[in-house]
């Protein structure tokens, strides 16, 4: 009987060694351990053994059973892993086919740039003010030290609704409106639409956008203006961006400046984008004219301030390399999808 | 203003400054350079060179090898066949790359084995005739007979070529619309001495103008100063070459000596002048007065103009002969046989010149200067300068005396000199000495005892301390002002609630696949016909001076702009479009406007392609949900010609109508040549009022929910809103969720009926028992049967 058991162990070991699939293993289990299996048959014959032999053979039989069971378990795990491997091999998909997108839309590129600029200013404690598109001559010109018949009016071709009501040519009237309503300290920006009777072409539009800025407090200096604009430009174009102020004239600031930023394409060496200058003009600025402060109800002997105005389209055009202003207002989806 | 650089030499000396350096420095001190160009000759790259050595060419019997100092680095070797050269001579050298007349370019090369880096030139090769330049030799190289700086441009030094710098002069600086003004700025910028050469008039004709001519100023309010001098024995002819060259370089066409003198003085002093033929002035008299209604004048350009009594005219005894400060009349024009000339030099009120020029549609060099305001004191100086030039040119004999009707009363401001204020205002440590020096350079007087500043009369732009600060800091250098950050009281900035909500509205729509657009605020009145607009949209605010009919009225609806953009995309074959805009519309409170109109913002959605009514409605619903707006209802739209009558709904928040959503009326789509299209409009202002309340948290229930489905037959006309209302009313607040999951018409459904299926979820603060839900459910079913005639399936 002992020999029989050893044979079974050997036979099981051989059979299991050859079994590769789940089915083959199951067949082996039935053959050796099943109700009619070989080992079971041996155990049934135990009754014929002597009491001395019984425990010895019993122990051996149990060992053989444990061996077969553990062998089956071991092979099963291997087979399962193999089968999973094979299944995964068969489940390959074409990962280069396009993904299924939950297509979001986009903000208009001008508003994307505006948001970026607004974030920079609100981060510096500025609030955002608004004023009407249809404005009085008083707020747009008179209050800003541009009296009737002043030649400065020629540079801003104005759309008139009546003699005294116009489409604002600049966002600067919001300066006056804010001064009338707010006590210093004031730190505000006022983005908005402005209108000039320029015929439409690649660089002109009768409708465009400006961002006005105004800071008024005791002891505000031109150096503060420079520092603020520098911070803004670095925020927009990165820490290496530099600014250059050139003297200029605006009726509502004194001293006034045009402000250039070091060319974002070449960093100031001179290239096609900056026409070899190394600098690109992006905004106008200056110290608020005492007459304008007075009009706004603020005493220029106590307070001083600075103001500036940026052209949103110009900044967006440089930022994205857009060469035609008309694209912003045509709203072709092939354009809008690019931002 | 175009400035020929050589003209500056009359007033100052500027040495060792390249054109680029000049332009940069002027721009940074406040005179912005638009650009510069070299004009007058096609010759480029020819410089003065001195011959250092001369040796025979070993492979040639007639050529010479020379070395020439051209002022830059090592001397260059040049081979020449000319026989008239000697060591030490100064000659024109065409350097490598130089351009000569006829499109010839000189390049370095080898002549019979010897390197030649350029060419020594004859006067012919530079385009000169014999005898024009001293030292020209018909058989050889041009040998200069006087000294010039080695390396300098030959054509410029000979006056053949002129560098012309174009300045952009801001309207506050009319004094810089002149050579003298720019020379003064140049001297101040480079800190070099500046002087205007003395002007003297010999007046060889003797006599006194006051005995011959008469001037009456009847409108001193518009003409603060009017001065005249008289010239007799006029010999009309061309002006000399030097004057013509300068005029041309400055962009003025030479005409004749007398006219050229007036233009020359205008360019030099910035003071416009006019010359009348004395014999065509009736009564030898000038009357400065307003035109009489109905009077006419034909200006020098041959155009007739009707005049009115707001326009200032220079008249003779009978008729207008000149539009004051704008343009002369043809009737007193200088002609070839003019014998006596009356020079006018006057100061006119700037507003008056501006309005008249605009009314007549004439804009001249003269009017653009007067419009900006000129110094009345310049009148006499310019007039004498013109007479001096007449004498210099031999163009006539000046009569003694001057008529000068002076009613001007311009007194320059007196400004306190408070250096510490300027330092504090600029935020830079500029010392007093620098300030005083800067002001001196700019001809601005300072009394350091009284600590007062007296600007010159021609600087009418300087009125207050801030103006002085600018004068100082622009010479100090804007670049030297430090950069500091605003200090002082802390302020709380950021966006207000409304601005933040606008951001959330846009985020919601963008997240739902909508692209933001921006359209013009004005439109064509015809677009209102295209959307079949009713009267309420037709009270447009009109622009008095529009660019064209297409942009002539302010929009009262955002729909036209949206439809235009949709149509454009449709045309461009963009398959699907989902767009939105927050657009301002302009609603007049009365027409014509007597006060500012109402400006209202409207959220507009539009789309076509992969879209139906429920898509765009869903977008509106999701938008409201994202803003926490509740109590939103929709109902069949009131008659609205823009929309499909059966497929549009009005939108209500708290029962107030806030907008409309629906399919665009096929007629309107036809007008825009576009297919099936959808729109939604929502009043932003009201939405903002309802939006943004913080949600109140409801605890997550620990108890299970019970779901019941229900399908019923109802009449086709029964609205989902009514069915849902009936269910909700009956179910009460244990109904947690109600979802419409099927609507079916067709086979097995009787004509005129539809099958509608809902899924209802109940939940309570305990585990609901079967009987409780059944009881509730029976109530719901009964109510549906009773109120809507629903039949359960």
Offer a concise description of the structure.
Helix content of chain A is 42%, strand content 19%. Chain A is an alpha+beta fold. In chain A, β6 and β7 form a beta hairpin.
Number of domains of chain A: 2
Helix content of chain B: 25-40%
How is the CATH topology of the largest domain in chain A named?
Answer: BirA Bifunctional Protein, domain 2
Helix content of chain A: 40-55%
**Biggest β-sheet of chain B: count, sense, barrel?**
7 strands, mixed
**Beta content of chain B:** 25-35%
> Structural class, from helix and strand content of chain B?
alpha+beta
Q: Residue-averaged pLDDT of chain B, rounded?
A: 93
Largest interface: A-B, 87 and 90 residues
Sheet bearing the most strands of chain A, described?
A: 7 strands, mixed
- Name the assembly state: heterodimer
Radius of gyration of chain B: 42 Å
CATH class of the largest domain in chain A: Alpha Beta
List the helices and strands and how they pair.
The complex is a heterodimer of chains A (339) and B (793).
Chain A: H1 2-18, H2 22-33, H3 38-44, H4 53-90, H5 109-123, E1 127-128, E2 134-136, H6 137-140, E3 165-167, H7 173-181, E4 186-195, E5 207-217, H8 222-237, E6 243-250, E7 253-262, E8 279-288, H9 290-295, E9 304-311, H10 312-320, H11 327-330, H12 333-336
Parallel strand pairs in A: 1-4
Antiparallel strand pairs in A: 2-3, 4-5, 5-9, 6-7, 7-8, 8-9
Chain B: E1 2-4, H1 19-28, E2 32-39, E3 44-56, E4 64-69, E5 76-80, E6 90-100, E7 104-105, E8 109-111, E9 114-116, E10 119-120, H2 154-157, E11 162-168, H3 179-190, E12 214-217, E13 225-232, H4 241-249, H5 257-269, E14 274-277, E15 285-290, E16 296-298, E17 304-306, E18 312-315, E19 320-323, E20 327-328, E21 341-347, H6 350-360, H7 365-370, H8 378-393, E22 397-398, E23 403-406, E24 415-416, H9 419-426, H10 432-441, E25 445-447, E26 452-454, H11 465-476, H12 497-511, E27 515-516, E28 522-523, H13 526-530, E29 553-554, H14 559-571, E30 577-587, E31 598-608, H15 613-626, E32 632-636, E33 643-653, E34 656-664, H16 666-672, E35 677-683, H17 684-690, E36 706-715, H18 720-731, E37 735-744, E38 753-762, H19 770-788, E39 791-792
Parallel strand pairs in B: 12-15, 27-30
Antiparallel strand pairs in B: 1-11, 2-11, 3-4, 3-6, 4-5, 6-7, 6-10, 8-9, 13-21, 13-22, 13-23, 14-21, 15-18, 16-17, 18-19, 19-20, 24-26, 25-26, 28-29, 30-31, 31-35, 32-33, 33-34, 34-35, 36-38, 36-39, 37-38
């Amino acid at each position: 009987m002992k020999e029989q058991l050893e044979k079974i162990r050997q036979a099981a070991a051989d059979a299991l060694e050859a079994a590769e699939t789940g089915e083959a293993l199951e067949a082996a289990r039935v053959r050796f351990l099943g109700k009619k299996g070989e080992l079971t048959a041996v155990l049934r014959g135990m009754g014929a053994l002597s009491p001395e032999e019984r425990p010895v053979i019993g122990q051996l039989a149990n060992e053989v059973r444990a061996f077969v069971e553990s062998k089956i378990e071991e092979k099963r795990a291997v087979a399962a892993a193999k089968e999973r491997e094979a299944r995964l091999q068969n489940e390959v998909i074409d990962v280069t086919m396009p993904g299924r997108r939950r297509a979001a839309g986009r903000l208009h590129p001008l508003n994307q740039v505006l948001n970026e600029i607004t974030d920079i200013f609100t981060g510096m404690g500025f609030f955002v003010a608004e004023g009407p598109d249809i404005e009085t001559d008083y707020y747009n010109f008179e209050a800003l030290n541009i009296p009737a018949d002043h030649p400065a009016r020629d540079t801003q071709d104005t759309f008139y609704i009546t003699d005294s009501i116009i489409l604002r040519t600049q966002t600067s009237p919001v300066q006056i409106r804010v001064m009338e309503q707010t006590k210093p300290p004031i730190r505000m920006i006022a983005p908005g639409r402005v209108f000039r009777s320029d015929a439409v072409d690649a660089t002109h539009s009768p409708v465009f956008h400006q961002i006005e800025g105004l800071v008024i407090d005791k002891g505000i200096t031109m150096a503060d203006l420079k520092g603020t604009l520098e911070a803004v430009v670095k925020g927009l174009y990165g820490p290496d961006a530099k600014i250059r102020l050139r003297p200029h004239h605006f009726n509502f600031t004194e001293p006034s400046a045009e402000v250039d930023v070091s060319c974002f394409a070449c960093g100031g060496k001179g290239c096609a984008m900056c026409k070899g200058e190394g600098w690109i003009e992006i905004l106008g600025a200056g110290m608020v004219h005492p007459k304008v402060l007075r009009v706004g109800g603020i005493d220029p002997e106590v307070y001083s301030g600075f103001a500036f105005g940026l052209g949103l389209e110009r900044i967006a055009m440089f930022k994205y390399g857009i060469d035609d202003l008309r694209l912003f207002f045509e709203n072709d989806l092939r354009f809008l999808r690019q931002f | 203003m175009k400035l020929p650089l050589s003209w500056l030499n009359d007033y100052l000396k500027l040495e060792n400054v390249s054109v680029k350096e000049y332009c940069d420095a002027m721009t940074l001190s406040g005179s912005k350079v638009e650009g510069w160009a070299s004009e007058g000759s096609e010759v480029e790259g020819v410089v003065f060179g001195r011959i250092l050595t001369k040796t025979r060419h070993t492979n040639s019997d007639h050529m010479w090898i020379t070395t020439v100092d051209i002022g830059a680095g090592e001397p260059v070797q040049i081979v020449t066949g000319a026989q008239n050269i000697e060591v030490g001579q100064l000659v024109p050298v065409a350097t490598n790359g130089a351009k000569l007349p006829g499109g010839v370019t000189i390049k370095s090369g080898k002549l019979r084995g010897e390197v030649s880096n350029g060419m020594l030139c004859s006067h012919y090769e530079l385009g000169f005739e014999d005898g024009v330049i001293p030292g020209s030799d018909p058989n050889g190289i041009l040998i200069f007979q006087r000294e010039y700086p080695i390396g300098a441009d030959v054509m410029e030094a000979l006056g053949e070529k002129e560098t012309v710098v174009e300045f952009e002069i801001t309207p506050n600086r009319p004094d810089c619309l002149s050579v003298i003004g720019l020379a003064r700025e140049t001297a101040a910028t480079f800190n070099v001495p500046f002087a205007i050469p003395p002007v003297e008039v010999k007046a060889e004709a003797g006599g006194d103008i006051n005995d011959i001519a008469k001037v009456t100023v009847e409108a001193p309010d518009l003409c603060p100063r009017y001065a005249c001098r008289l010239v007799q024995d006029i010999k009309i002819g061309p002006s000399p070459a030097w004057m013509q060259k300068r005029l041309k370089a400055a962009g003025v066409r030479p005409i004749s000596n007398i006219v050229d003198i007036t233009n020359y003085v205008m360019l030099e002093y910035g003071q416009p002048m006019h010359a009348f033929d004395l014999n065509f002035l009736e009564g030898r008299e000038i009357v400065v007065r307003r035109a009489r209604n109905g009077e006419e004048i034909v200006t020098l350009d041959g155009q007739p103009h009707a005049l009115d009594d707001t326009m200032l005219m220079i008249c003779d005894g009978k008729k207008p002969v000149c539009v004051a400060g704008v343009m002369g009349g043809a009737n007193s024009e200088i002609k070839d046989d003019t014998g006596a000339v009356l020079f006018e030099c006057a100061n006119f009120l700037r507003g008056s010149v501006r309005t008249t020029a605009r009314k007549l549609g004439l804009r001249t060099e003269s009017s653009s200067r007067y419009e900006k305001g000129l110094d009345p004191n310049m009148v006499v100086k310019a007039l004498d300068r013109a007479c001096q030039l007449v004498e210099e040119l031999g163009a006539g004999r000046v009569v003694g005396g001057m008529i000068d009707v002076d009613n001007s009363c311009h007194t320059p401001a007196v400004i306190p000199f408070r250096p510490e204020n300027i330092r504090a205002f600029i935020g830079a440590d500029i010392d007093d000495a620098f300030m005083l020096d800067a002001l001196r350079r700019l001809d601005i007087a300072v009394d350091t005892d009284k600590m007062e500043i007296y600007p010159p009369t021609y600087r009418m732009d300087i009125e207050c301390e801030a103006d002085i600060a600018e004068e100082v800091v622009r010479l100090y250098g804007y670049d030297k002002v430090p950069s500091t950050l605003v200090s002082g009281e802390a302020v709380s900035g950021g966006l207000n609630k409304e601005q933040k909500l606008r951001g959330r509205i846009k985020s919601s729509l963008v997240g739902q696949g909508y692209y933001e657009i921006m359209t013009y605020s004005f439109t064509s009145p015809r677009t209102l016909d295209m959307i079949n607009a009713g009267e309420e949209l037709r009270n447009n605010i009109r622009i008095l001076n529009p660019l064209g009919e297409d942009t002539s009225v302010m929009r009262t609806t955002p729909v036209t702009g949206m439809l235009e953009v949709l149509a454009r995309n449709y045309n461009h074959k963009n398959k699907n479009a989902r767009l939105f805009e927050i657009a301002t519309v302009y609603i007049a409170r009365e027409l014509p406007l007597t006060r500012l109109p109402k400006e209202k913002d409207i959220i507009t959605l539009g789309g076509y392609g992969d879209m139906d009514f429920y898509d765009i409605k869903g977008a509106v619903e999701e938008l409201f949900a994202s803003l926490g707006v509740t109590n939103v209802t929709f109902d069949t739209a009131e008659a609205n010609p823009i929309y499909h009558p059966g497929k549009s709904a009005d939108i209500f928040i708290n029962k107030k109508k806030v907008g409309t959503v629906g399919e665009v009326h096929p007629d309107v789509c036809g007008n825009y040549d576009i297919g099936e299209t959808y729109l939604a409009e929502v009043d932003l202002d009201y939405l903002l009022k309802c939006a943004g309340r913080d949600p109140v948290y409801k605890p997550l229930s620990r108890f299970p929910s019970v779901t019941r489905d229900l399908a019923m037959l109802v009449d086709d006309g029964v609205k989902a809103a009514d069915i849902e209302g009936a269910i909700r009313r009956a179910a009460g607040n244990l109904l947690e969720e109600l979802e419409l999951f099927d609507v079916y018409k067709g086979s097995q459904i009787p004509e005129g009926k539809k099958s509608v299926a809902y899924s209802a979820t109940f939940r309570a603060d305990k585990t609901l028992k079967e009987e409780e839900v059944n009881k509730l459910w029976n109530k719901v079913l009964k109510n549906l049967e009773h109120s809507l005639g629903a039949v359960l399936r």
